[in-house]
Design a protein that fits this description.
By secondary structure, this protein is of the alpha+beta class. It has helices spanning about 15-25, 40-45, 50-60, 100-115; strands at about 70-80, 90-95. The protein contains 4 helices and 2 strands, in the order αααββα. Strands 1-2 form a two-stranded antiparallel ribbon. The protein starts with 14 loop residues before the first helix and ends with a helix.
Length: about 120
């Protein structure tokens, strides 16, 4: 059994990183299995900016992504104008992630973008 240790060089999660991640999310996006729309997270962040930071900061500091945040719903949709059932290219898969996981993913993507 291993014990997670925080990364020494990991910068602390800042409220403005969460603000930028939420600014890029559309309130009309379909929620995932948690059924929490982006508009709810935006409202929480508006009312108490530190709350989401306090929830996500340990995950960032320890580099841990819980299995429950990895759950997603997949929906298979038929592409308009394509023949039915003839080819796998006639369909598209839409994956709906947990909305809090989307926020964390956007933060980590922006950090990795700066490094790359």
């Amino acid at each position: 059994m291993s014990i997670l240790l925080p990364f020494r060089d990991c910068p602390a999660l800042a409220v403005d990183e969460i603000s930028r991640a939420l600014a890029r999310s559309l309130p009309s996006s379909a929620p995932g299995p948690d059924m929490t729309p982006n508009s709810v997270w935006k409202r929480i962040h508006w009312e108490a900016p530190h709350l989401i930071r306090d929830l996500l900061a340990p995950l960032v500091a320890y580099g841990f992504h819980p299995r429950t945040l990895k759950m997603a719903d997949g929906i298979v949709c038929h592409k308009p104008g394509k023949p039915l059932y003839d080819s796998h290219s006639a369909f598209r898969v839409i994956v709906l992630l947990q909305t809090v996981s989307k926020i964390l993913e956007r933060i980590m993507n922006s950090r990795l973008f700066c490094v790359a």
